[in-house]
Amino acid sequence: QVQLEESGGGLVQAGGSLRLSCVASGHTFTDYHMAWFRQAPGKERELIAAINWRGDATHYPNSVKGRFTISRDNAENTVTLQMNSLKPEDTAVYYCAADFLGQGAYAYWGQGTQVTVSS
Fold first, then answer.
1. Predicted confidence pLDDT, tens digits, the chain (119 residues)
2. How many CA atoms lie within 13 A of 107 on its CB side?
């Protein structure tokens, strides 16, 4: 099974940018559709960006569309989330997740990285 490790979280002022990275190991990276989720205190975990195995199809909810961009480098086994125009409501723990063969279930998760946006 695949192992995932996120990096790149931190503290940023509103309007700023952060770039999160997730490195996958232990299995063929192109067997997985990848996604980023986030969970804020007291809220449910939500999907904020998804990308297919080839990297030519992406999905975003309206809350982040136009501000966040997901991409992947299959040669480096890495998926990245570029976050621009950050808002205080983007504060959350961000998780990288993998869906084996696009079956519709994200069964593999990283440990999460904290993103805090100050106003």
1. 899 999 999 999 999 999 999 999 999 999 999 999 999 999 999 999 999 999 999 999 999 999 999 999 999 999 999 999 999 999 999 999 999 998 889 999 999 999 999 99
2. 11
Report which residue type is found at 73.
D
> Is the Cβ–Cβ distance between 12 and 33 less than 8 Å?
no
Interatomic CA distance for residues 7 and 46, integer angstroms? 19
At 95 the three-state DSSP class reads: strand
The residues, any chain, with a CB within 8 Å of residue 88's CB and separated by 6 or more, are: 14, 117, 118, 119
Question: Cα separations (Å) of 41 from 4, 12, 47, 87?
Answer: 22, 18, 15, 16
| Per-residue model confidence (pLDDT) at position 114 | 98
Considering just the CA atoms, what is the radius of gyration of the chain in Å? 13
Q: What does the CA dihedral 38, 40, 41, 46 come to, rounded to 10 degrees?
A: -60
Cα dihedral 24, 8, 105, 61 sign: negative
